[in-house]
Design brief:
There is one protein chain. By secondary structure, this protein is an alpha/beta fold. 46% of the residues lie in helices and 15% in strands. The longest helix has 22 residues. It is globular, with a radius of gyration of 20 Å. The structure holds nicotinamide-adenine-dinucleotide and magnesium ion.
């Protein structure tokens, strides 16, 4: 029986994780569930999974959940705040932590889980973009098992040799091919992108996801963050990672070997597949995902990525090549810009402008520890907010 903490249990990844868990009550016990402020859904999850702990960030939400839990006669202890998020990751009864908070807010608890040597199911790619070397050092030092949940990285993990140790050439790996759907604006005339709305940006053709990652997919910043994520997970340089637009989202990524073999992982675009893989690793369990019907798929297309249409992808490659605090700055500026776009304060095309401006004005520093990353993150958020204010 594995004890699980799910960070961000009310989100898209969180609810898909609980869907898989519910299919295997003999294998998993929920130790803790966490959310920002969604009391009703978290309470429903507490009724169904009876966790030992539930954590909320919002004060009013904590009070509300405490009374609901009490009235229902549940034993779940309701905790509050960022420290509590860390606390429920390091408990002795926790075997694995699903890191599914969105954005940089996921860093601290995910890092705590790594330091405590827990098995980490990593959906929160921002942790690696923000603090890749700090996080990977913590994983290596504690001997944590790190399982990528992002579908592309999960595919690459499955296509690499079992004992892959970060040495691409030693393992005969030539390059990594990271697939991307191209999002909802893949074919939208460039002249129309100025006026697209948040709802249009969030209407992803293949995947149902949270709003932040949906906007990232529309701008292809998501793919840019994933290039950086792949760099840290697989020790691949920017030149070793090629983005391939594959609109059907059936091939989730590929690994090319020096002998010309290319190994891919395929499946329906449903996050329960990588989640079930991570939960059961190294075994396989039913995820509830339907069989892939290749006859229905019928054709698969592959197109080179377009840096003019998707400047965010170019900015992410540049930040990875610059290294140091540049990816942390990129990530923070993107989070502020996406939030402003979702709140209809800036246009879709202003997102890359904000990020580029912030990257241009802030110095790049070496990352020697977590403090350097957090300082760059805070500085970039301030600079991005100021720049956005100036646009209005
Ligand atoms: P979501 O917005 O649906 O859910 C986010 C979860 O985090 C919610 O439970 C929310 O309550 C919680 N949360 C939000 N802000 C918080 C804060 N400040 N502090 C603590 N908790 C907070 O997001 P999602 O789509 O499930 O994505 C989660 C992560 O997984 C992201 O990093 C995303 O990039 C990654 N991911 C998602 C998908 C997907 O299909 N949705 C695929 C690959 C990777
Ligand atoms: Mg992905």
């Amino acid at each position: 029986m594995q004890g699980l903490t799910i960070l961000g249990s009310t989100g898209s990844i969180g609810t898909s994780t609980l869907d898989v868990v519910a299919r295997h009550p003999d294998k998993f016990q929920i130790i803790a569930l966490t959310a920002n402020r969604q009391v009703d859904l978290l309470f429903q999850q507490c009724l169904q999974f009876k966790p030992l702990y539930a954590v909320l960030l919002d004060d009013a939400a904590v009070t509300q959940l405490r009374s609901l839990v009490k009235d229902a006669g549940l034993k779940t202890e309701v905790l509050h705040g960022v420290d509590a998020l860390e606390q429920v990751c390091v408990l002795p009864e926790v075997t694995a932590v699903m890191a599914a908070i969105v954005g940089a807010a996921g860093l601290r608890p995910t890092l705590a889980a790594a330091k405590a040597g827990k098995k980490i199911l990593l959906a929160n790619k921002e942790t690696l973009v923000l603090a890749g070397n700090v996080f990977m050092d913590a994983v290596r030092a504690s001997g944590s098992a790190l399982l990528p949940i992002d579908s592309e990285h999960n595919a690459i993990f499955q296509a690499l040799p079992k004992a892959y140790n970060g040495d691409m050439s030693g393992n005969g790996v030539r390059r990594i091919l990271l697939t991307a759907s191209g999002g909802p604006f893949r074919d939208t005339p460039l002249s129309e992108l100025q006026n697209v709305t948040p709802d249009q940006a969030c209407a992803h053709p293949n995947w149902v996801m949270g709003r932040k990652i949906s906007v990232d997919s529309a701008s292809m910043m998501n793919k840019g963050l994933e290039v950086i994520e792949a760099h840290w997970l697989f020790n691949a340089s920017a030149d070793d990672i090629q983005v391939v637009i594959h609109p059907q989202s059936v091939i989730h990524s590929l690994v090319e070997y020096v002998d010309g073999s290319v190994i891919a992982q395929l499946g329906n675009p449903d996050m329960r597949t990588p989640i079930a893989y991570g939960l059961a690793y190294p075994e396989r369990i039913d995820s509830g995902v339907a069989s892939l019907d290749l006859f229905k798929v019928a054709t698969m297309n592959f197109v080179a990525s377009d840096f003019e249409r998707f400047p965010c992808l170019a900015l992410a490659y540049d930040a990875l090549r610059t290294a140091g605090t540049a990816p942390a700055v990129l990530n923070a500026a993107n989070e502020i810009a996406v939030e402003a776009f979702l709140n209809q304060r800036i246009s879709f095309l202003s997102i890359p402008r904000v990020i580029e401006e912030v990257l241009n004005i802030l110095p790049v520093c070496e990352v020697l520890g977590l403090d350097d990353v957090l300082a760059a993150d805070a500085q970039a958020r301030r600079a991005a907010s100021q720049y956005i204010q100036g646009l209005q």
